[in-house]
Amino acid sequence: MRKNVTMFKPVSVSFTRDQLMNIFRSHDLDGDGKLSRKEVKAAFGYLGSRWDSYRAVLALLHADSDHDGYVGEEELKKLVDYALKCGYTIA
């Protein structure tokens, strides 16, 4: 006798722009209104990146317009755009 087995395929949903904004803002651990490389790295780790250090360096190159080594509030949109292009999803 054969049993019916229902299999569910896991579904991944992409993060929204607002979700990523909130995730990055929540990683501003010292509350100075800007994200350091260490804070960006922690955020990418939270997102599940296997290469969080690599992602943080590339993100800073992409988003840090004034080259001060931080992602300020005005640069956050560029950081989120970069993260969206990377395709992070909610599993």
UniProtKB/TrEMBL annotation:
<feature type="domain" description="EF-hand">
    <location>
        <begin position="15"/>
        <end position="50"/>
    </location>
</feature>
<dbReference type="InterPro" id="IPR011992">
    <property type="entry name" value="EF-hand-dom_pair"/>
</dbReference>
<dbReference type="Pfam" id="PF13499">
    <property type="entry name" value="EF-hand_7"/>
</dbReference>
<dbReference type="GO" id="GO:0005509">
    <property type="term" value="F:calcium ion binding"/>
</dbReference>
<keyword id="KW-0106">Calcium</keyword>
<dbReference type="InterPro" id="IPR018247">
    <property type="entry name" value="EF_Hand_1_Ca_BS"/>
</dbReference>
<protein>
    <recommendedName>
        <fullName>EF-hand domain-containing protein</fullName>
    </recommendedName>
</protein>
<dbReference type="InterPro" id="IPR002048">
    <property type="entry name" value="EF_hand_dom"/>
</dbReference>
